[in-house]
Amino acid sequence: MGIVIGASNGDIPALAADPNFAGQWVNSNVLAYYPASKIIVVNVGNEVVTSGDQNLIPQLLPAMQNVQNALNAASLGVRIKVSTVHAMSILSQSDPPSSGLFSPVFGDTLKALLQFHKENGSPLMINPYPFFAYQSDPRPETLAFCLFQPNAGRVDSGTGIKYMNMFDAQVDAVHSALNAWGFKEVQIVVAETGWPYKGDPNEVGPSVDNAKAYNGNLINHLRSMVGTPLMPGISVDTYIFALYDEDLKPGPGSERSFGLFKPDLSTTYDVGLSKHAQTPTAPVTPVTPAPATTPTTPTTPVTPVTPAPKPTGSAAWCMPKPGIPDSDLQANLDYACSMAGIDCSPIQAGGPCFEPNTVASHAAYAMNILYQTAGRNPWNCDFSQTAALTSTNPSYDGCTYPGGN
Questions:
Q1: Structure pTM?
Q2: Residues with catalytic roles
Q3: How many Cβ atoms are within 10 Å of 125's Cβ, its own excluded?
Q4: Residues annotated as region Disordered (predicted)?
Q5: CA 202, CA 252: separation in Å to the nearest integer?
Q6: pLDDT tens digits for 236-293?
Q7: Cα torsion angle, 8, 9, 12, 13, sign
């Protein structure tokens, strides 16, 4: 993973019309910083295809081609790819994920862009936002599905695959759309995704707890290398929106409240990407933004998901809180044991932790093993606020609960 930079929508006409301008742009914005800065992608414009700007849309591909040619001339065309960022609205269908299709409204333009990606080995950059999906369906079960929290899952009627989170469903819908058009070799990169920590009183979903849960669980999901159901074992490169709040942006309050940090550099909340309260972990790298073309999708610097140090401190195990109903514990049990890499065999019949054969006992083991495997971050022991950390070792008889330093 590396740095993604962007040419603004306003630069597209000049980039398209004048190869010399494209060369100058590459000299000023790429060559001046490379290789000290690990630039891997140049995004030409932001959500141009769905902007409705009929003057700008036809100029997008020529602009990308001129930037590609300028990089080729600098012998960087193999190392640095050229792309552009799309809103999820380039899809006409995304549910279920296996039915994902690109909108025929953008047909010729998108096919030409995808052919460019195929020929140059560059990624399709997409902005999936489970937050907006929840706003359109504000049910508790939808929130859990969007926040990577325990939930019943959603079965894709086309494949029979059960999805446990909205992010995977949205990414796989794009994957299906690429397959449907014969571009399965084009890589997907998530250019933006995030969750606002506050919003206007009439907005559903924004809160610090939700933002921390979404970004923290997303990071854990990506680091697990589980991938998505249609792309198993592949961790899609993902950039978290956003490093800083866009405090001057118009629109609803949530639009100004996606940042991990505030404009005064103070921390909004920590999702494990910082070494100290005020200092982002190197190499947390901002992406140069392009101006927004729609009022709903944010466009500020984003934070690439990079490994953070494991937490240290006293021995800790993740256990259910007292008084949690069996129905909630069963959901936690099903969720934990459905995750790739989680070994629930000790609580199966004949296993060392099968007895006592109760939902509470089995859920406790499964919740703890997920916490230990996922990275031992506080948000890994949330389970929709039904779990808490303890320094008391819950192991008993021949049943060992992994944990400790």
A1: 0.72
A2: 47, 192
A3: 25
A4: 276-314
A5: 9
A6: 999 999 999 999 989 999 999 999 999 999 999 988 776 543 333 333 333 333 333 3
A7: negative
Strand partners, 228: 231
End-to-end CA distance of the chain: 29
Instruction: Look at the alpha carbons of 239, 243, 249, 255 in this order and tell me if their dihedral is positive or negative.
Output: positive
**Among 14-18, 333-337, 373-377, which range has the highest average pLDDT?**
14-18
Q: Kindly provide the residue ranges of all beta strands, DSSP E only, lying in 256-345, ordered along the sequence.
A: 274-276, 279-280, 302-304, 317-320
- Pair 46, 299: CB distance under 8 Å: yes
Half-sphere exposure in the Cβ direction for 97 (13 Å, CA): 25
C-alpha separations of 274 from 23, 85, 181, 245, 270 in Å:
37, 27, 41, 17, 7
List, in sequence order, the alpha helices (H) in 137-186. 140-146, 166-180
Pair of tokens at residue 42? 């140049």
Greatest C-alpha distance within the chain: 75
Residue 242 · residue 254 · CB < 8 Å: no
Residue 371 confidence (pLDDT) above 80: yes
Q: Report which secondary-structure segment, H or E, holds 3.
A: strand 3-7
